[in-house]
Amino acid sequence: MKRAIVVVFAWVTAWMFVPFTAFGTGGPEPDPPPKAKTVAELAQRYDSSRCVECHEDIHDQWSESLHSRSILGSPRTAPTIITAIEKGLKRFPYSGVKEDSDITVENLMMCMKCHLPQLDEATDDVAREIVATIRGWMKALGNADDEKAAELERKITSLNIGCTVCHNKMALIHKYADGYPQSDTVYGSQQGDHEDEMYPKMAEAPAIGESIFCGQCHGEGPNFELDHPSQCATAYGSYLFAYVAHGGDESCQDCHMRKSELGHNIQSYNDGTMIRMALDVDVKGRSLFWRKNKEEGVLPIGVINVELYNKAGHVIPDG
Question: PANTHER family, from UniProt (predicted)?
């Protein structure tokens, strides 16, 4: 047993240093971009429509995914952000938030670290504009003002997890080894020239096809690096400790992109294909007569037994 533990530990230790031999083509940490002052400016900076001409099929797939509406969600995410403000930030004695006008980018990162990581490139006015837009959208829905609701929904969904969030901003994880993402480069599985004025270069991102890439957002639970950690997605932690640790060898991308054949239309519990891949369901039923009591006598009843078997590589539901 002791030898087995040493062998496993040695393998894990060696694996930890794989990034140092992997091929990464980042560079020195670049100067931060100027802060976006409006939602429109931030949306334009990360607008995925520039990718349509060459990657139409992938863009169409992405447009059907929740990544394309990461703040709006299913659409329960946007109201949940408001709940976090009302039931959390405004009640915490040291958050500094009593009114919406007090909200800062730092305050919202408890949600936006994953739902809109590029918010760190914006001013606090953008954080407040996002909150005001969500509130306006919710009010329009409540008033059955469909036209106004649709207008504000378009504004909310203009901010999303688009092409350059994954293929530039979040592309390189082990930055000491692989470098920092460069502002003129898109990262993926190839290197070379890229026919785009803003991103004229392509480079390899060693981890972009690995589960750790998705784990940046679909993580291990509390975001302890924040002043106020929030308990949220634990899918990657569950994947590591309850799947990989027991011999599982498929990645997030294997199931959610390749086996599902959904590509960049990355789905989970809202999609029938993913549900069938994740669960075995066994339903059995029987009818009988039951003598309840003297007054009500014998009653016909049905007994339904439902068994769910999780085939996924992590706990479900999760995010």
Answer: C-TYPE POLYHEME CYTOCHROME OMCC, DISSIMILATORY SULFITE REDUCTASE SIRA
Residues 288 and 166 in one domain: no
pLDDT digits 0-9 by tens, 13-26: 444 444 444 445 89
Q: Are residues 152 and 33 in the same domain?
A: yes
Q: Give the range of the structural domain holding residue 61, as residue numbers without chain letter.
A: 23-179
Rounded Cα gap, residues 69 and 217, in angstroms: 15
Domain count, the chain: 2
Long-range contacts of 282-288 (CB under 8 A, 24+ apart): 282/306, 282/307, 282/309, 283/307
Q: Which residue(s) pair with 201 in the sheet?
A: 185, 193
- Do 294 and 165 sit in the same domain of this protein? no
From CA 98, how far away is CA 103, in angstroms rounded?
A: 8
What are the start-end ranges of the H helices in the chain? 2-16, 39-45, 56-63, 77-84, 105-115, 124-142, 146-157, 163-164, 175-178, 211-215, 235-238, 252-253, 272-278
pLDDT score recorded for residue 270:
87
Q: How far is Cα of residue 128 from the mean position of the Cα atoms in its chain?
A: 22
Residue 77 near residue 116 (C-beta atoms within 8 A): no
Q: Which residues pair with 81 in a beta bridge?
A: none
* Secondary element (H or E) of residue 287: strand 279-293
Over residues 168-224, the pLDDT tens digits come to: 999 999 999 999 999 999 999 999 999 999 999 999 999 999 999 999 999 988 889
